[in-house]
């Protein structure tokens, strides 16, 4: 990976964190003072793998198991792995039970979602969070797992990790592209408590500025569909990041209008635009606006920093982000830095 394209660096943070409960951030900022940071992992800790959304086979799962074991962790494979109910990793009941067992198992210190797709919203209201609130643990994933990130943050203030999942691990680690390998390794860095720091190139449409706040976000379409529910994302005083894939520009425009009309853009402290894989307009139905045009039409009256092309989303450079944790965002003419503080 070329340094000028992307630099991911980390600063060590103590690995020994009390195993019971979580850490409340000592900050008077309303966006983070009630955040609960699950205990970071240490060698020998147990990571559970389950399928709250799409299905995965045992063969597809194995590369991720091998790699996470090489990081020093033990693995518990959930009953939904290898199951399939059409597109889902088992029936709604099976996925609910498997996720509940992972949430309630005191030995499981982190839950890695095997893949995204669709399905988490079908089980979210069936889950009981009492033990998770008493003994928080890391939930890991992105895309459809945005449902879990938003629900955890908005209802319980529990931090989580937005990152690649098991289906993104390469079959042959030695043949992985550098950026793919580094983004997967960022999961380990996040889990063991290293402070994350990402430097990336400037974009001519960026709006410069410096800000701090808890980081929240995920898949834009999923965030839109959660509006008006008890899982709806809470953005006030926070740095919001969004990404999406397979959407037309007019659909992205509609989603940003949803955020604006719902008041989700007026009181944020910064906006990070990640990867967007955009469907080409149908001939004769051109939308006539770029992604940047769409964004700035909705945020032109605000003065917080905005940056584009952050390495998060449905792409190889999809780096781990700690949702609910305080970050500093610096956007200037030379580039951008997002760092955990």
Textual characterization of the structure:
There is one protein chain. Helix 8 (249-261) runs parallel beside helix 9 (291-299). The chain is α/β, with parallel strands linked by helices and 341 residues long. Residues 1-28 have low confidence and may be disordered. 26% of the residues lie in helices and 25% in strands. The protein is built from nine helices and 16 strands. The two termini are 26 Å apart. The protein has two domains: 6-195, Rossmann fold; 196-340, LD-carboxypeptidase A C-terminal domain-like (Glucose Oxidase, domain 1), CATH 3.50.30. It has helices spanning 58-70, 92-104, 120-123, 130-134, 146-156, 178-191, 220-226, 249-261, 291-299; strands at residues 6-11, 23-24, 36-37, 46-50, 74-77, 108-113, 138-141, 160-162, 195-200, 209-219, 239-247, 270-278, 306-307, 321-323, 326-332, 335-340. It has an eight-stranded mixed β-sheet. The protein is globular, with a radius of gyration of 19 Å.
Features:
single chain, alpha/beta, Rossmann fold, Glucose Oxidase, domain 1, eight-stranded mixed beta sheet, 16 strands, 25% strand
How are the SSEs placed, and which strands pair?
Layout: E1 6-11, E2 23-24, E3 36-37, E4 46-50, H1 58-70, E5 74-77, H2 92-104, E6 108-113, H3 120-123, H4 130-134, E7 138-141, H5 146-156, E8 160-162, H6 178-191, E9 195-200, E10 209-219, H7 220-226, E11 239-247, H8 249-261, E12 270-278, H9 291-299, E13 306-307, E14 321-323, E15 326-332, E16 335-340
Parallel strand pairs: 4-5, 4-6, 6-7, 7-8, 10-11, 11-12, 12-13
Antiparallel strand pairs: 1-9, 2-3, 8-14, 9-16, 10-15, 15-16
Helix pairs in contact: 8-9
